[in-house]
Amino acid sequence: MRKLPAIESDYLLELEELPGYDEGRVLWEEAFGRSMPLRIEVGVGNSPFLIEVASREPGYNYLGLEYSHKRVSKFLLKVHKAGLDNIRMLQLNSDRLFGDYIPPGSVDHLFVNFPDPWPKRRHEKKRFIATERLRLAT
Question: Strand 38-42's sheet: what is its strand order?
Fold first, then answer.
């Protein structure tokens, strides 16, 4: 397995380093450095969606989630070029976040635009659009 280069960006967050992580509830307003409602996009991929929304509606904190190293790198370059200060990124599978580190009712909007379908029955546990995951995200 090849080693991927580390990503360095002011927009990239590390879950374990976030304020409140040790207590099991991340303090998102402290992580962003501003007190605004939180909006999350699960699986930002190669889409400019989150950047466009954050540009049009700057009165929110936007958190992008993506597990692919390559997609995270490309997305962070786009954010940097856009010069937005209201977007942050976590490189992880969304399962690690919902239920444990996002208090119920604390997300203003949850965007899931093109989730991986995982059509086979044996892949059911990998689907984001599943009853239990959606319950945790609301």
Answer: 12-13, 87-91, 61-66, 38-42, 107-111
Which tokens hold the place of 119? Answer: 């059509």
Superfamily of domain 12-115 in CATH is Vaccinia Virus protein VP39 (3.40.50.150)
Query: What confidence tens digit (pLDDT) does each residue in 48-88 have?
Result: 899 999 999 999 999 999 888 888 999 999 999 999 999 99
26 CB neighbour count, 10 Å cutoff: 23
For the chain, the domains span 12-115
Question: CB-based contacts of 131: which residues, under 8 Å, 6+ apart?
Answer: none
Q: What is the pLDDT of residues 15-43, one digit of tens each?
A: 999 999 998 888 899 999 999 999 999 88
Cα separation, 124 vs 49, in Å, equals 27
d(CA 14, CA 86) in angstroms, rounded, equals: 16
Rounded to two decimals, the pTM is: 0.81
Active-site residues, by number, are 116
Q: Is 40 exposed, middle or buried (0-12, 13-18, 19+ CB in 10 A)?
A: buried
